[in-house]
UniProtKB/TrEMBL annotation, chain A:
It is found in: Cytoplasm; Nucleus, Nucleolus. It holds the Pfam family RNase_PH. This is Ribosomal RNA-processing protein 42. CDD domains: RNase_PH_RRP42. The lineage of its organism: Eukaryota, Viridiplantae, Streptophyta, Embryophyta, Tracheophyta. It comes from the Eukaryota. One of its GO terms (cellular component) is cytoplasmic exosome (RNase complex). Keywords: Cytoplasm, Exosome. One of its GO terms (molecular function) is mRNA 3'-UTR AU-rich region binding.
UniProtKB/TrEMBL annotation, chain B:
Belongs to the RNase PH family. Residues 19-28 have a biased composition (Basic and acidic residues). Signal peptide: none annotated. Transmembrane segments: none annotated. Its main location: cytoplasm. GO terms for biological process: nuclear mRNA surveillance; poly(A)-dependent snoRNA 3'-end processing; rRNA catabolic process; rRNA processing; U4 snRNA 3'-end processing. This is Uncharacterized protein. It is found in: Cytoplasm; Nucleus. GO terms for cellular component: cytoplasmic exosome (RNase complex); nuclear exosome (RNase complex); nucleolus. Coiled coil: none annotated. One of its GO terms (molecular function) is RNA binding. Residues 1-28 are annotated as: Disordered. Residues 9-18 have a biased composition (Basic residues).
């Protein structure tokens, strides 16, 4: 936990009140965002995202599995977040478990939409291989390498980048299998399907300190928060998920005001992230050299 | 189409599509879209606890016990304010298919967040209050039922709170917003909004939303929830008053 003196606390609070934060940012400014993709060769897609000193990695692994009998036309996605003790000693031996569950649940809520699949950032029906028989199971794993606040936003950005980086092998289904048998499948090593990530939302956490709220809070600033609201917004400006995180109660009008503030911020953040991801993708392709050409 | 593996699955599949077919669908229990299920609340459900409550909203049945305040575990760091330890469990027989209850791992932390803004934690420093919730029958809107019932149990245990916490959820199916969804309605929802609210202070302690929403819809759904929470708050208050007057 952050140990701050009374003077430091006052400095942070006062700065936020005057719209000039300790690192020179304004209330609605993000820290510099750095994105690298294709950082984990073992995964189908991966990305590392840094917001200032916050450093997270997301990886996407695809495995063939059986669809849920209740939803035969859809693949499955599981999102897990791991908080490594290398990020903070408090995460050691199950200490990060509570935070991990909280982050995983929040990401699932924001990315997977309603139970019927409406409004999902990841289109589950595109993971279908053969209805009711074979589908892709996507395992999305987030890892917190270094933590300096705003983990949820960074993880969501990393997942978006990792999904853009993901190539799902093309699958040929053997014909002629009887309906009761599990059909034979052929996984191609050469042909990959790209994933459409234009619908994947970003998450913007607004942290309320005093009467004002800020985006992309550092852990020092988070320690001064009274409450926080994470809003997930897609490129159409629609809200795809909302979670109030801890702290004191809020008036309904304040929450609605925060939602509109988040939508406003997202109009700048989404194009910024998209261009960063494209740049990272171009760089990772160039870095692979000429011998590997997907 | 794969043939359903069990009776329980068939029941779900039949009802999943139905509401989407036309706009004039009727809810399975005949309620209006903006009508909550009748609530039945009782305090003092478990003898051994410092406070407890039982709540029934239609077929959703939950029981919450509150223990403590007790001394915090030695391994815990010193804390000038009290701790709230929340745990939500589903009885294995609470859902149609056994084993489905593991979908709700985040309920404990959601309950904690809904309550921590209401409880005066500084009134029991260095100690822990345990809140154990058990869902006996999962009939939809489980989390709101657990939150409302837990705040009632805390009040029964005499833990100081700023206000009772009442909670309600709204499901969005097609173009309609329906309040207090039953399990089969939750299964086919396009989005949902859950609010925990302190009616007298008019403060929201917890709010979660899934699915795709426009701002106008969020506004509408929040208003619906707040209205339902205020009404539920009254019922909870009456329940507490009755419990006190019958014991003296």
């Amino acid at each position: 936990m952050v140990g701050l003196s009374a003077g430091e606390k006052n400095f942070i609070r006062g700065g936020i009140e005057q719209d000039l934060r300790a690192d020179g940012r304004q209330r609605q400014d993000f820290r510099p965002i750095l994105i690298e993709t294709g950082v984990i060769p073992q995964a189908n897609g991966s990305a590392r995202v840094r917001f200032g000193a916050t450093d997270v990695i997301a990886s996407v692994k695809a495995e063939l599995g059986k669809p849920n009998p209740l939803q035969p036309g859809r693949g499955k996605v599981a999102i897990y977040v791991d908080c490594s003790p290398t990020a903070a000693p408090a995460f050691e031996r199950g200490g990060g478990e509570e935070l991990s569950t909280e982050l995983s649940a929040a990401l699932q809520k924001c990315l997977l939409g309603g139970k019927s699949g409406a409004g999902a950032g990841i289109d589950l029906s595109s993971l279908m291989v053969l209805e009711g028989k074979v589908c892709w199971d996507l395992y999305i794993d987030g890892l917190v390498v270094s933590s300096d606040g705003n983990l949820l936003d960074a993880l969501a950005a990393a997942i978006k980048a990792a999904l853009t980086n993901t190539g799902i092998p093309k699958v040929d289904v053997g014909v002629g299998a009887s309906p009761d048998e599990q059909p034979e499948v052929n996984i191609s090593d050469e042909e990959f399907l790209q994933f459409d990530t234009s619908a994947v939302p970003v998450i913007i956490t607004l942290t309320k300190v005093g009467r004002e709220y800020i985006v992309d809070a550092t852990s020092d600033e988070e320690s001064q928060m009274s409450s926080a609201v994470s809003v997930s917004v897609n490129s159409h400006g629609k809200v795809c998920g909302l979670i109030k995180r801890g702290g004191a109660g809020l008036d309904a009008s304040v929450i609605l005001d925060m939602v509109s503030a988040a939508r406003h911020v997202s109009q700048k953040l989404i194009p910024l992230l998209d261009s960063e991801i494209d740049a990272a993708e171009a760089a990772s392709l160039a870095g692979q050299g000429s011998d590997v050409d997907p | 189409m794969a043939s359903p593996a069990s009776y329980a699955l068939r029941r779900h599949q039949q009802q999943r599509r139905r509401p989407l077919q036309d706009d004039n669908w009727v809810r399975s229990d005949g309620r209006g879209f903006h009508q909550c299920r009748p609530a039945f609340l009782r305090t003092g459900a478990a003898r051994a606890a410092s406070g407890s409550a039982y709540a029934e909203f239609g077929s959703t049945k939950v029981i919450v016990s509150v223990f403590g305040p007790r001394e915090s575990k030695k391994a815990m760091k010193y804390s000038g304010i009290g701790r709230l330890n929340c745990n939500v469990n589903f009885a294995t027989f609470s859902t149609a298919t056994r084993g489905q209850e593991s979908d709700h791992k985040d309920f404990s932390s959601m309950l904690h967040k809904a309550l921590e803004g209401a409880v005066l934690l500084e009134s029991f420093p260095k100690t822990t209050v345990d809140v154990f919730a058990l869902v006996l029958e999962s009939g939809g809107s489980d989390l709101p039922a657990v939150i409302s019932c837990a705040s009632l149990a805390l009040a029964d245990a005499g833990i100081m709170m700023y206000d009772l916490v009442a909670s309600a959820s709204v499901s969005c199916i097609g173009n309609s917003l329906i309040i207090d969804p039953a399990a089969e309605e939750e299964d086919c929802q396009d989005g949902s909004l859950t609010v925990a609210f302190m009616p007298s202070r008019r403060e929201i302690t917890q709010l979660t939303l899934t699915g795709e929403w426009s701002t106008g819809r969020i506004h509408e759904a929040t208003e619906l929830c707040l209205d339902a929470c205020s009404k539920l708050g009254e019922i909870m208050r009456t329940c507490l008053k009755q419990a006190v007057s019958s014991s003296t």
